[in-house]
Amino acid sequence: MSDYLPNEVDIIDILKRLPADSLIRCRCVCKSRYSLISTPHFITTHLNFNLSKPKTQHQLLFRYYDHNLYKHRITLHSSNDPFPRNHFSKYLNYSDPAIHMRLLCLDLEVEDKGGFFAYPLDFVELDCSYEPINGISTIVGSSNGLLCLTHGYLYVLWNPSIHKAISLPVPDFRLNSRRHYALSHGFGYDPATDVYKLVRVVYVDGSVPPQVEMHTLRSGGWRYLRSCQCDC
């Protein structure tokens, strides 16, 4: 019987081809599967395998407020289709200046149950456990299927493939509401250190250099970065 059981190398070769949500279910089979799938080596192998596959299509992520349902919605659309303004005109008040919308290109692994992008159902609605109490969240960016959202001092990392989201610590540098400021963010993956990083840049009253903080998932906290002043 044991002659027909695959060894660990064969198992990894099989598991790396599964979508993320299927891997989550496989972790519940036994302790050995849980340990294997949870190792950094397998996570990297699974990621590299999926990144090496030919890109069939990108998706467009749309974040908006639905005035009919009184809720924030996140929907995923095929980039092969024109911008779905006609579809969203039924739900959006484009004259409302408080609406924040952003489109970005995202390689996201979503199970296709009969063609999500087929007419007339030309989009997928994604469910995030994080919802801001007031206002609307901003999409900071995406990397390897992870999305970074922010609202005020709250930052959230969200993996739609496995339906999980985690909140990050509040930044150390706080803003005085009476002062004018400009804020920008960056989120990405550093392959040299195998770490996801979130950078927060704050210009207070037009000051140069700005206040710069960086959060890494490995450290679990924010640290201040020395800014470099550039002559323009």
How is this structure best described in words?
There is one protein chain. The protein has 232 residues and is an alpha+beta fold. It has a domain at 2-52. It is built from 5 helices and 12 strands. The chain has helices spanning 8-15, 20-26, 31-38, 40-52, 85-88; strands spanning 59-66, 71-78, 105-106, 123-126, 138-143, 146-151, 154-159, 164-167, 181-190, 195-204, 211-216, 222-225. The strands form 3 sheets. The chain has a 4-stranded antiparallel sheet with strand order 3-1-2-4, with no helix packed on it. A 4-stranded antiparallel sheet has the order 5-6-7-8, with no helix packed on it. Strands 9-10-11-12 form a 4-stranded antiparallel sheet, with no helix packed on it. A hairpin with a 2-residue loop joins strand 5 (138-143) and strand 6 (146-151). The longest helix is centred in the first third of the chain and has 13 residues, at 40-52. The protein is globular and about 60 Å long. This is F-box domain-containing protein. InterPro entries: F-box-assoc_dom_typ3 (IPR013187), F-box-assoc_interact_dom (IPR017451), F-box-like_dom_sf (IPR036047), F-box_dom (IPR001810), SCF_F-box_component (IPR050796). It holds the Pfam family F-box-like. Residues 5-45 form the F-box domain.
